[in-house]
């Protein structure tokens, strides 16, 4: 699907008559943004003919080399960044979005639907954002994407604070089954937090590289963004730096929570092993006594003693109770 936007009074407007892919929209504002969502081959050919450029395929966008994500071709800049989008189940995915800047027109190629794109279209359509062309749309769109990443980090911080309190509640809980269930839930939530934080950090780094490449003078294109946009780009790069540092701080907190959870699991396992060890030590002396008097030698005087059997039972009970009392006195068992 292709949606073509123009600008009126600094606001974004969708241009009519976009069902016909054989020609550019006629009348009204000039196109400044062509948004391609899951484009078909016909739609790719339409944009290629309209702008005289080659549209990268989905496989090209997946390339991880910097030279494949940031490059100049046919007088246009091709900039690919990872943008987050939510998926069912509370998870998130990082998928590439390619931004093409050419002749004051922005082209975006994407195969997923980040919420930030919808927010930007709605916001830019309701109020003037000072949009004048493709460069201004590019910077304003990335501002919304960065704001969305900041909101995700803030939400993750609140969830991590909740996880911290949950860990220490688990540690003070004496209910064994509840503690085990909570630890399992805790590890699941820590795994989700690490995944989310890692994807945010990855997206921030990719956007930083895109902005750095966009503002650098390029042979044949010059700086891709207007001077008025460079001030906004400088602010965005400062925001990206602070958000990256924040994401690293949260990554350290996630590692702390993981270490704390694993420590609680180790403590729980040690408690179980301690119980088995105490039980084994308590029954060791009675077992020794029973083994001695279970031997089949001909000469064992105690076997013919009238009180031998009660005495052996008493000795086994005493030899079991004394270690138990010793462990209890030392506080090794509750």
TrEMBL record:
Give the range the annotation lists for the signal sequence: none
The UniProt keywords, alphabetically, are:
Cell inner membrane, Cell membrane, Ion transport, Magnesium, Membrane, Transmembrane, Transmembrane helix, Transport
Q: Which domain of life is it from?
A: Bacteria
Record has Hydrolase as a keyword: no
**Classification via Pfam families:** CorA
Q: Mind telling me which residue stretches traverse the membrane in this protein?
A: 275-295, 307-327
Quote the subcellular location field of this record.
Cell inner membrane
InterPro entries of this UniProt entry? CorA_cytoplasmic_dom, CorA_MIT, CorA_TM1_TM2, MgTranspt_CorA/ZnTranspt_ZntB
**Is-annotated flag, keyword ATP-binding?**
no
Q: Which GO terms describe its cellular component?
A: plasma membrane
Checking SUPFAM superfamilies in the record gives:
CorA soluble domain-like (SSF143865), Magnesium transport protein CorA, transmembrane region (SSF144083)
Q: Which reaction does it catalyse?
A: Mg(2+)(in) = Mg(2+)(out)
Q: Which CDD domains match?
A: EcCorA-like_u1 (cd12837)
The way it spans or sits in the membrane comes to:
Multi-pass membrane protein
Molecular function terms from GO: cobalt ion transmembrane transporter activity; magnesium ion transmembrane transporter activity; nickel cation transmembrane transporter activity
Q: Give the family this protein belongs to, as stated in its UniProt record.
A: Belongs to the CorA metal ion transporter (MIT) (TC 1.A.35) family.
Q: What is this protein called?
A: Magnesium transport protein CorA
Look up and give the organism this protein is from. Aliigemmobacter aestuarii
């Amino acid at each position: 699907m292709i949606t073509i936007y123009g600008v009126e009074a600094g606001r974004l407007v969708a241009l009519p008559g976009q069902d016909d892919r054989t020609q550019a929209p006629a009348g009204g504002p000039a196109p400044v943004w062509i948004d391609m969502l899951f484009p078909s081959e016909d739609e790719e050919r339409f944009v290629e003919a309209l702008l005289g450029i080659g549209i990268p395929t989905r496989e090209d966008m997946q390339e991880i080399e910097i030279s494949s994500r940031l490059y100049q071709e046919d007088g246009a800049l091709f900039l690919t960044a990872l943008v987050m989008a939510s998926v069912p189940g509370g998870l998130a995915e990082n998928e590439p979005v390619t931004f093409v800047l050419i002749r004051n027109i922005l082209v975006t190629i994407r195969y997923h639907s980040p919420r930030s794109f919808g927010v930007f279209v709605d916001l830019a359509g309701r109020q003037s954002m000072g949009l004048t062309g493709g460069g201004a749309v590019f910077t304003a769109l990335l501002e919304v994407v960065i704001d969305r990443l900041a909101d995700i980090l803030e939400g993750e911080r609140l969830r991590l604070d909740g996880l911290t309190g949950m860990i220490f509640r688990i540690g003070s809980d004496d209910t064994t089954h509840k503690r085990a269930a909570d630890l399992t839930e805790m590890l699941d939530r820590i795994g989700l937090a690490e995944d989310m934080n890692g994807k945010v950090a990855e997206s921030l780094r990719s956007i930083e590289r895109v902005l750095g490449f966009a503002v650098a003078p390029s042979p044949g294109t010059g700086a891709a963004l207007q001077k008025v946009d460079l001030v906004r780009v400088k602010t965005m790069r400062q925001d990206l730096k602070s958000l990256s540092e924040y994401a690293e701080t949260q990554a350290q907190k996630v590692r702390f929570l993981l270490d704390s959870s694993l420590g609680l699991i180790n403590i729980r396992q040690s408690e179980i092993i301690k119980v088995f060890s105490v039980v084994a030590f308590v029954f060791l002396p009675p077992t020794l006594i029973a083994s001695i008097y279970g031997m089949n030698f001909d000469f064992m005087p105690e076997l013919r003693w009238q009180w031998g059997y009660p005495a052996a039972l008493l000795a086994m009970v005493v030899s079991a109770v004394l270690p138990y009392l010793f462990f209890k006195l030392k506080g090794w068992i509750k």
